[in-house]
Structure formats: structure tokens, C-alpha cells
Amino acid sequence: MSTGTDAPATAPEGYDAGDYPPFGVTVDLAIFTVRDGALKVLLVERSADPYEGAWALPGGFVGVDEDIDDAAWRELAEETGLTRTDWHLEQLRTYGTPGRDPRMRVVSVAHVAFAPDLPDPQAGSDARCARWWAVDDLDLPGLRGGDHDSDVDGAPTLAFDHARILAAAFDRVAAKIEYTSLATAFCPPTFTLGELQHVYEAVWGVRLDRSNFRRWVQQTTGLVRPAPTDEVRPPQGRGRPAALFEARTEGVRTLHPPLLRPADARALRADRSAR
Amino acid sequence: MSTGTDAPATAPEGYDAGDYPPFGVTVDLAIFTVRDGALKVLLVERSADPYEGAWALPGGFVGVDEDIDDAAWRELAEETGLTRTDWHLEQLRTYGTPGRDPRMRVVSVAHVAFAPDLPDPQAGSDARCARWWAVDDLDLPGLRGGDHDSDVDGAPTLAFDHARILAAAFDRVAAKIEYTSLATAFCPPTFTLGELQHVYEAVWGVRLDRSNFRRWVQQTTGLVRPAPTDEVRPPQGRGRPAALFEARTEGVRTLHPPLLRPADARALRADRSAR
DNA sequence: ACAAAAGTGTTAGGTATACACCCATGC
DNA sequence: GCATGGGTGTATACCTAACACTTTTGT
After folding, report:
1. What average pLDDT score do residues A197-206 get?
2. Residue A121: its pLDDT value, please?
3. Burial (Cβ within 10 Å: 0-12, 13-18, ≥19) of residue A154
4. How far is A35 from B184, CA to CA, in rounded Å?
5. Residue B1: its chain A contacts at CB < 8 A?
6. How far is it, in rounded angstroms, from Cα A198 to Cα B135?
7. Protein chain B, residues 221-240, with a C-beta closer than 7 Å to any atom of nucleic acid strand D
8. What global pTM score does this model have?
């Protein structure tokens, strides 16, 4: 490594504690789910000092001997009340602008999690108030044609730089279901093709052609497979019972071909597409 | 934020120095260029303690009052000897596994930079040895059909977890030129369509059909535009002089349609495609 | 019977792939 | 002339988008 910045001189080799600027390192989680036909994200209400009353992404400090990924999984378990499952959790980006936390220099490694619909109002492990917010009800920079200033009715105030993180997180989700099997991560263990289509429609905010969607799913290797038993789902309301499917594997798969979202759904995020 | 891990108890609010585990935060850079028909990356040879003699990504500590992005740009300038240009530099991922640096707990924010072909042997600002390495000559996990154990002839030893970072960085580059205009970032200010095609071929390790590539470039909005003067490039060796083009904008643009790499070029990275 | 959702099929238009062919230059 | 790279065209296979139609359930 080369020499660092000027302020606290860092020796290229043989450095030890005290030689380097100390940082706090945290993980922040954008946990998404699809529920009631909308994409939602879990936020917690702050009960203390900076940004009191504002809503923030769940998160916390990384332990000295803890891997960053482990810290993210730990926070996910704490916030949702569920133990480490087969959910998908991935790094999003690291945010470390000086002053983003008024108290001290904190670098936050933001993550994105894909969760199926959970038993409704999981109270956070610590007594703070936590709830799902529809992404459309948030006031995020450059989202869904958002003007960012045109405050959505009842949009919560977001703490720190979490509006920025959320915008990037949403972007990631919308892009990722195009070319990976992650849309199934929003579904229960078995699901109908209609339910899977609803995931795409909720995330992208568009309507898809049922027939074409069905053809795409079935010709796309590695996305779904018929549920082991040939049972069907008794219809929720009216309509013919639907065949049940399950995700093809636990992990993430790259899809061939991808399902590209319609151009009009993509245009809304064009200005932020330059990572 | 919720409560942190056990070791150094972190107060959810009102914490201050000493309450949190101290981390060193660095930036590491994977600076790519295309030269001699191959994708190359800039590495520096370590002259000291851990991993002495091994090759590492250029990088260094982030200053206390320095933004992470600024630190990355600073390192880029130091390593290439050029001031902040219009190059493309983006965050890749953060690596923070305990023990990745044997000396202390360091969290590294890895970046990827796209550079045009530079005046050849830029000596690093500090006297260490720096050179371009062809990606194909490196022994990276799961790359180009790599077995990772089948050591490439003359493959350098890579320091820390930099082999892993490089694999992810290469992956990002290969994916990014599919759907953004970033291939032009490897080209000089004006370039021929043949040169642009060579970029794609070098990065993906495939041959493309000249005719189809040309049609794609020209029908794709926002990629290239004819150079202001209608000059041509005198042929390097033999052949007809070629028309010159320039990148359409400074920034990054999402391409419609994208240029998807052939399936066989994608298969080589399939196992790593699950982020 | 009717509405709603599942499932099947068909067709027109566009895009990609693999070529074939001519042009301009250096050797 | 001939090799090399630039530039243009075309035909086929394939994929996509749009829409029509049938089936099965609840009310």
C-alpha cells in the first residue's frame, strides 16, 4: 500500500495502533419485502439524540473480531427476530463521508436483504418502534419520478444519509431481479407464477403480460421448478387454483435470458444509473 | 441503530471515542487498462513486512477528515502520476474479514478504475516498483476457466486477499461494459470503432463480428459520436484509414440496447456470479 | 350467469447471427 | 498483387410484444 494522507502520518509498513486514524465501522441494512402488492422496507424509529424521531435503517457496530458479513447477518436476525435463514443478503456500498454522523467518524457498510413476507409487526429486539414502509411512500432522491422536494404525503423524515442509501438499495433490488433468480427470495417456499409476477410488478411499478411472463419463467433455466407434490393453491379470492412452484436452488442464479424491465420502468432511475 | 456486538459494548446513543472498536480504513484500487490487446491491471510490489515481494493493489489509509471517494482519487493520482482526470472510478466492495491484514484490523473499501492506455512505465510516486499485469497472467479464483491451483506460468504472488478483490474487480469490468458506455473509458479521447471493438474483445476474451458490432454501436444512443473534425486515423499498420469517434459524454451512460457478451464468455464466471 | 384468475396458442414485428462483398492502404 | 483492416449489405433464425381464447373456481 502506498502512503496515506497527511494528517495522521501512516507508515507504509510496520504501523501499529495509534499510527492510523480510528474509525467506527457499522453495518446498515435495507431489508425489503413485497407485501400487499408493494415493495416495502423495514425502518426503525430513532429514540435518541441525533435525528430523534426520524426513521433509520436498522444497523449497528461491527465487533472487533467480527466479520462484516457476520455483523450484517446478526443485525438481520436481531431486527427481524428470525435466526439466520436462507435469505439473500448482499453488500450494497460503503458510505463514509465525514460528518454523515455528527458524533464521530463512522464508515457504514450498507447491505440489502431480500425477505419473504414476514409475520406482520415484528417488534425490534430492542424496544424501539419498527415498521414496514412502502418504498413509494418514502421521499427518496430521484426515484419513481421523484422530485425529492415534492414531499410525499406522510413521508417520514429519514436519519443520517439513509435516504441516499435507500435510493441506491432500491435501485439494486430493481436491477437484480432482472438478471438473477432473486425475485423468488420475496416469495414463500412454494408460490404460484401469479405471485412471482406480482413481485416483479410491485418492484418495478409496472404491469406485465401474464402470458409472456409465464413463457419467460418456464423457458428460463434455473428459476423455478414444479413443487414436489402436484398440489395446487386454493384460490385466495376467486379464480382457478394455480399450480405451485418452488425456487430452483437456495442460492442466486444468473438468468438466461434475463427479464428486462420495460423501458418506461427503467427511465425513472436513469439519472442515478451511473453508479 | 441497534446495539452492537458484545466485546466493546456500544451505546446506541451518545457514544464517543473509546466506546467503539477502532478500525483502520483503507482504499484499495484495481486500476484497469487495455493495452496490447489485453486487459491489464496495475500492481505494486511490496517491499516490506507482510507479504514482502508479493504484488498488491495500490492503496492507502483514508484520512480522518477525508471522504472515501476523495481518498480513492488521491491514491489514483499518486499511483498513476496523473492528476484527477475524467476517468471513471467506482466503489467495488468492502473487505473487512478479521485477519486479512495480519497487523491490525483493517477494513478496505475496494475500488475499480477504468484508465486509457498510459505513458508506459509510470514509476509509483513512492519509489516502489509498479507495473501492469495482464489479467490472464494472474492466478485468480474462478477466472477464465481458472482452476486457481493450476498456477499460471510466472503468475505473481498476490498479497493479502487481493486475489479475491481482483477477481471481483475483473468481474465488474466485464459486466459493466455490457450495459454502460464505460468501454470508451479505456480509449483515448478519439478512437476508431475497431479500437473500441478491441476493448470488448480484450476484456471478454472473445472475437466479435465486426459488422454486427459496428451496427450495434451506431444504433445505440449515447455511446459514440463522430469526432468533430472529419479527420481519420492514419492506419497503424496496413489497412484503410478509419473514421474517428469520441465518447458521447464525460459520464457513464446506460446503454439501450446493451451489448451482451456471448454465452461462452459468460460461462467462465458463472460460479462467481452469485455476489 | 358472471367475475376473476389460471393456462394455452397465435401472429406480426423487430433483433441478432452469420455471412458475402467492396474499399483503401502498406508492403 | 496481396494481405490487412475499414465499411456496407443481406438473409435467416430467433425472440418479443400484443392479444385472443379456453379453463376452473367463487359468488
Report:
1. 96
2. 54
3. exposed
4. 42
5. 26, 28, 56, 58-61
6. 42
7. 232, 235, 237-240
8. 0.89
Does the beta-carbon distance from A68 to B20 stay under 8 Å? no
Contact status of B109 with chain A (Cβ, < 8 Å): yes
**pLDDT value at position B86?**
74
A263: Cβ under 7 Å from strand D? no
Q: How confident is the model at residue B152 (pLDDT cuts 50, 70, 90)?
A: low
A191 closest CA partner among A162, A231, A220, A134: A231
pLDDT beyond 60 at A101: yes
A115-118: long-range contacts, CB 8 A cutoff, minimum separation 24: A115/A31, A115/A32, A115/A33, A115/A80, A115/A87, A115/A185, A115/A186, A116/A33, A116/A87, A116/A185, A116/A186, A116/A187, A116/A188, A117/A33, A117/A34, A117/A35, A117/A186, A117/A188, A118/A33, A118/A80, A118/A82
Of B14, B90, B94, nearest to A68 by CB-CB distance is B94
Specify which residue's alpha carbon is closest to the C1' of nucleotide C23.
B240
